[in-house]
Amino acid sequence: MRDIELRRREFLLASAAVGGGLVLGFYIPFTGAPIAAAVEPPELQPNAWLKIDEDGRVTITVAKSEMGQGVWTSMPMLIAEELDADWSLVRPQQSAVAPVYNHTVYGTMVTGGSTSVSSSWEQLRTVGAAARQMLIAAAARAWEVPVSECRTEAGVVVHQASGRKLGYGKLSTAAAREPVPAAVTLKDPKDFRLIGQSLARFDSPAKIRGTAIFGIDVQLPGLLVAVVARPPVFGGKVKSFKADQAKKISGVKTVVEIPSGVAVVAADFYSAQLGREALSIEWDLGPEPQLSSAGLQQEYRELGRQAGTVVRQDGDLESALKQAAQTLAAEYEVPYLAHAPMEPLNCTVELGTNACEIWTGSQFQTVDRDAAARAAGLKPEQVTFNTTFLGGGFGRRANPASDFVVEAVHVAKAAKAPVKTIWTREDDIRGGWYRPLWYSRLDGGLDAAGRPVAWRHRIVGQSIMRGTPFEASIAATGFDGTSVEGAMDLPYTIHNLAVDLHSPVHTVPVQWWRSVGHSHTGFVVESFIDELAHAAGQDPYLYRQGLLTKHPRHLGVLERVAAMAGWQQPPAKGRGRGLAVHKSFGSYVAQAAEVSVDDKGRITVHRVFCAVDCGRVVNPDTIAAQMESGIIFGLSAALFGAITLKDGRVQQDNFDGYPVVRIDDSPPIEVQIIESSEKPSGVGEPGVPPVAAAVGNAVFAATGARLRQLPMTPERVLAALQKG
Amino acid sequence: MLTIHVNGQSHQLDVAPDTPLLWVLREHLQLVGTKFGCGQALCGACTVHVDGEATRSCVTPVKSVVGKKVVTIEGLSGELMGSLEAAWVAEEVPQCGYCQPGQVMAAAALLVQTPKPTDAEIDNGMSGNICRCGTYPRIRRAIHRAARERNRGRSS
Lengths: 724, 156
Fold this sequence. Notes:
The complex is a heterodimer. Chain A contains 20 helices and 30 strands.
C-alpha cells in the first residue's frame, strides 16, 4: 500500500451530479482562487474524471485519444482498480479539452510518446482511490460504524461485522457530500483485481459493426466538403489560379484560396474532387524546386565525412581506432516515410462570429485548438474541440503546425459555411511531415580478442523539433535529442564511444513517426553490432550478451527471445535467423526473425519472436497487440516503405507506389512479456525499432549479404548478394 | 434519378451516375461504416457486397449497381455476421478499427465461398485489405474461429 498526498496545486473536487450521483474531478487551479469558487454546476464541470450514477453505472473520462493503442480500456482500468468498481458497470467517455486533462508531463493535452499509461499511472489511480474512500465514508456514516470496519468489493461497500452491503450507486449521492480526502491510500499491487488482466476492449464492438465514429464520419446539417489543391513541391505556393471550369461542375459551391493552396468546396466529396481536377493553378515552386532524394543522399554522405555536433564522447576514440586490431566502417541509409494512417486526414469546422466548433481525430488537442483559434481570430476558450476516434495516428495526427486543423479552419472561414476538409490518399502520401531521411556513418574497432574498443556513429538528417513549439529542447542541449535517441544511449560496454550529429535544413516538412528517432537508430546500431560480432567471429547473441552485463533489463529480453526462438538450434535449411534488442520509451524489446531469400532477392519473413519488458503490466493482451502492431509497422518500413523525391516532386502517391505489409506478407508473431514490478512504460512504439535489424541480421545469416539501406528491396538484396 | 437497393431497401437518388458507390453510401444514405481509404481499390476499407461479391465501392460507379443488391457492414446480419463479430471480439482484432468493417465484409465473402479456409486461402482472400495497425495475425485467427463456430453450428 502507498499513501499519496495530493499536491498543493491539485485538488479533487466532488459534486452531486444532476439527478443524483457522484461526480469527481481533479482540478488544477491556475489562479490560486479558493476551491469553492472553482466549483461549477456539475453539468458544466470540465474537470470530471469519474461519474457514478445512482443506478451504479460508472462513467470514466478518457483524456487520451483512442487510435488503436487501447486507452479507452487501459485508462478506465486505472481508475476502476482503485475505485474497486464493478467492471461490468464501467463505460469510457472521451474528454473535452481542458487543463485538468493535460498530460502530466507535457503540460498540454497530448497522446504520444508511448506515455499514456506511464503518465496517468498515479494520477488516475489517485482519482479512483479518493472516490472509493468517499463511498466508504458515506456508507460508514449511514451505518453509524467506524470507517475502519468497512471495506469494498466490486462496486459494493461491505460492513465486515454485520455483513451489511451498500452498492456504489445507492451511496453515490451521499458520497458527493463527503469531504474529498486530503490523502489517499493506493492498493498493494498484489491486491489488484483488474490491472494485469486482459480485459476486453470497450471499442471493439462498434468498430466491428462500423458504428464507431471517426472524424471522417462526422455529419452536420448543411455540411459541405472540401478538397485542397496543395503545391506540388514543398515550400511552394499559389501564384495564380483559374476556377471557372471547376465552378461549372454541378455540386461545387465555391473555390477559395487559402494559405496552403486552393480549396474546392462542394456539396459532396465527388464533386469537390472533380472540381479540383478542373482547376488550373500556376505555382511558385519555392526555394528547392529541384530537390531529390539522390541529391540529399549525396549531400548527407559528404556531410558524413566531417565532424558534427558532439552528442556523446567517452574515452579517446581516435587513438582507440588507431590501436584496434581490426576496424570496420559502414554507411547506413533510410528514406523519408509517410505515416499513412488508414483514415485519411480530415477535419470538420463550424465557424460562427464568436465561436468555432471542431471535430477531428487529434493526438494534439491543446496545440490544435489554440492554432485553430489563431486562424479563426478567436480566443482558445471560444473553440470547442471534439475528439473522435482516430483511424490511426502513428504521430501524424500530432502535427506541430496543426496543419490539417488550421487548413480546415481557413477553408470554413473562406467558404462561410460548415465544412469537412478531406485529404485523399494521394494528398496524404505526398503531403509531407515525413519521418526524415537519415544517413549514418559508423566506424568500429575491435581488439585482438574481437571485443569492441571503439564505436563512432555520425548521424545526418533533418531535425523534427526545429521550428516546433518544442524547439527550446534543442537550445537547452545544442542538438535535437530525437535525432540521436537510441544511438547516444547505446547500452553496449564500449569504452571509446563517440556520437555526433549534422542537422541540415530543407523544405521537406518532417515529423515524429511511430518510434521517432529509434525508427532509424534501432536499425543502424543493431545491424552494426551484428557486423562487429561477425567480424569478431562470434555468435551475435552471445556477443551482445557479453556487452550488456550492466543492463539487466536489456539482458532479460535478449535472453528470453533467444530461448523463444530456439537460438541454440540451427534454423531449418535455407533459413537464417537474426535478432536485435533495443530500449525505447522506457521499455526494452528484443526480437528474433526467421527469414529466407529467394533467387529473385525477395525476402520472406517466416516468424518473429518478441520479448518485452515494459514494467508493470496493465492489460497484457493490449501489450501483445501493440508489439504485433509495431512489428508489422516496422516490417512495412524494412521491406517496402520509401518516399522519394525527384525534381521536387514526391514520386509515390498511393498504396501501389508506397506499399505496406499485407496479410500475405505478415508472419506469425509470438510475444512474451517479462514480469516486472517497475513503473509501467511505453508499448505503442517500442515494438517498431528492433524488427528491421532483426530481419537484416537474419538475411545476413541466411545469405551473407549485409543490407545497410532500407527498404530491403529485391534489387538491393541482389546487389548485396553479388557484393557479399 | 437512379434507384439502388441497399441493405434490403430501395433508394431513389439524384446523383451523378459516375459517383462512386462509396460516397453515395456515406453522404447520401449516411451509411458511414463503409470507409474511404485510398480511392483506388488498393486498400479494401470500402468493401461492400454487390450481389454477394466483395466489391471495392470506391471505384464502383453507382450506376453499375442499379438492379443489384448491395449489402454494407450495417446490413450484414444473421448467423454469418454473428459468428464473425463474436470471433473478432474473442480475438481482440480491432485496434484503430478504421479498416475493420472492410475486413469483416471481405471475411464474410470469403467464408461464404470457402467455409473452412486454410491460412493460404485466408491470405489470398484477405490480401486486398490493408490494416496499418497490423492486426493480420488476429484476423487470421478470427476467421479460423468463425469458420469453426459456423461448422459446429451446422453439424449440430
